[in-house]
Specification:
By secondary structure, the chain is α+β, with helices and mostly antiparallel strands. The chain contains 8 helices and 9 strands. The protein is elongated.
Length: 267
C-alpha cells in the first residue's frame, strides 16, 4: 500500500503513532489489481509494539465496487460505510428518475405545443385522449384566402428547393402577422394560405381583424421576391364573412378543416 492521505506518511513506527485514530487513504500498489483501488481506514494502537490497520474499500457506489471486483459483502457489516453506499445509490437512482421524468415532461410539452399549433387546443385534447372530435358550426366567421399569381409558371422554371425557400419566406411573414392580429391559421396547400377569425373561438371583430391582416399581407409581400426574376411576388387575396362548419377529417394525419359557402366565396 502507498499513502495517499497524508501524502508524506511512511511505514515507520513514529508515523504509525502519529496516525493513530486518524483517517488515512491508501492506494493498492499491486499490478494485478483490476483498477486503481483505494482504501480508507485508521490505525489503532494495540500495545507498545503492535498496531492494527483497519481498512475499507473507498467506493462511492455499487458500480465502483464492481469495478474493483468487490461486492457489498466485502464492506464492513457494522458501521456507516455500507449504509453510505446504499444511500448514495438510492439518491443517485432518485436523481436519475427525476431527470428522466423532467426530460419526458419536456418532450410531452413540446409534442403538446406542436399538436396545438396544427389544430385547436380543444380538438388536440380530444385526440390525445382517443375521443372523437365533434364537428362545430360557427355563425360569424371571416375567412382569408390567398395564392401566388403565376405559381405554376414559377414552379416550372425553379428547383423544388428554390420554390420551398420562397414559400417559407412568404409564409413566415404571414405566420407572424397571424399571431399579431390574433387569427387562426387553418392550413397551407401549395401556394394557398388559409386563415380566419371567429373560430374556433368567437370574435366580434373578426371582419376587421382579417381586413387589416389582408392589407398588411399585401404591403409586406412586396418584400418577398421571386427567385425567377427578382421581382416582388404578387398575391390574389379573397376574404368573406359568414357562417361555416369545422371539424377533424381523417384518422391518419388528421386535418382540421373548415367547410361552407363562406370558404368557397373567399377562395
Amino acid at each position: 500500500f502507498e499513502f495517499i492521505t497524508p501524502k508524506t506518511a511512511k511505514w515507520t513506527q513514529s508515523w504509525l503513532r502519529k496516525l493513530q485514530n486518524q483517517e488515512i487513504v491508501l492506494a493498492c500498489s499491486l499490478t494485478s489489481a483490476p483498477v486503481d483501488m483505494y482504501f480508507k481506514g485508521s490505525m489503532m494502537r494495540l500495545n507498545s509494539r503492535d498496531t492494527m490497520l483497519i481498512l475499507c474499500p473507498d467506493a462511492k457506489s455499487l458500480e465502483e465496487l464492481a469495478q474493483m471486483q468487490l461486492t457489498l459483502s466485502d464492506l464492513p457489516a457494522h458501521g456507516a460505510y455500507r449504509d453510505a453506499v446504499f444511500l448514495r445509490e438510492h439518491l443517485s437512482q432518485q436523481m436519475n428518475n427525476a431527470l428522466h421524468m423532467e426530460k419526458l415532461s419536456r418532450t410531452l410539452q413540446t409534442e403538446k405545443e406542436l399538436l396545438e399549433s396544427l389544430i385547436p387546443s380543444h380538438a388536440a385534447k380530444e385526440l390525445r385522449t382517443g375521443k372523437r372530435v365533434q364537428p362545430m358550426n360557427h355563425d360569424h366567421v371571416t375567412i382569408f384566402f390567398s395564392d401566388v399569381v403565376g405559381f405554376t409558371h414559377i414552379c416550372k422554371h425553379l428547383s423544388p428547393t428554390q420554390v420551398i425557400g420562397m414559400l417559407n419566406r412568404l409564409y413566415g411573414m404571414m405566420d407572424f402577422l397571424v399571431e399579431k392580429f390574433g387569427l387562426f391559421k387553418v392550413e397551407t396547400i401549395g401556394d394557398a394560405y388559409v386563415c380566419c377569425s371567429g373560430l374556433p373561438d368567437p370574435d366580434e371583430e373578426h371582419a376587421s381583424k382579417v381586413a387589416h391582416f389582408a392589407l398588411a399581407v399585401q404591403e409586406l409581400s412586396r418584400h418577398v421576391s421571386s427567385p425567377l426574376d427578382g421581382s416582388p411576388i404578387q398575391l390574389r387575396i379573397g376574404i368573406h364573412s359568414g357562417s361555416c362548419a369545422s371539424g377533424i377529417v381523417g384518422h391518419r394525419n388528421p386535418r382540421y378543416c373548415v367547410f361552407g359557402d363562406t370558404v368557397n366565396t373567399a377562395a
